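Hey, can you fold this one?
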Amino acid sequence: MKVAYAVARRVAGLRSAPALHPGGVMCSGTLDVPGTADGQWGADWLDRPGSYEVTVRWSRALGLPGALPDGLGLALRVADADGPGTALDLLLTSSGAGRLGRHLPLLRREALAGPYSTLTSYRTGARERVLAAFPVRGTHPAVDVALPALRQALSRAPVRFDLCAAGAGEPWRSFATLTLGAAHAVPERSTLSYDPYAHSLPGLRPTGWLRRLRQAAYAGSRDGRTPTGP
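Sure. Predicted structure:
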């Protein structure tokens, strides 16, 4: 954890921006959950039909220049997820889809070439499952990972993802559809601060193995951008 803190602080200080996901595109969208008739997920929010407004940040993880391969992030804030005033945050990172690959971040040249995973598992009822967003094929041509290309893709047509979950030995199963609209012209410092641990739901909570690592990296990134005295 000390290494993660130190590296993040150093990188943030050098670039005067967050160490991870320094640049991104903000947009609004909708999340449609069809629900289930038999409560198969064992989690109220997954089993209950609903349609929700979401605020999404689509970002480059390392902030490498131009269209160089980079990790990509989808940060979702689901408004009123469990009633008025409650929020659900999901952090998804470009990854593989296999048993091991879904837990590992993956650099990409194309933003819609594969899934975005929570990396860590979520407790859904009695099972632990990874959540992932799979781009819906055929809605967009190839989109490179440069931020202008992400904005252009959003301006051409809605970008759609199929949200799925899978546990050990389970196939991916869909639980929602995410539709993203046009990008917002929002100053970077006014964007939301997403926290999947503070904004989770009963029956849908992330497991803890990434928590300390993320907290150390975020703390280092904040401290690296904080001016110090002489």
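The chain has four helices and ten strands. Let me know if you want another pass with a different chain boundary.
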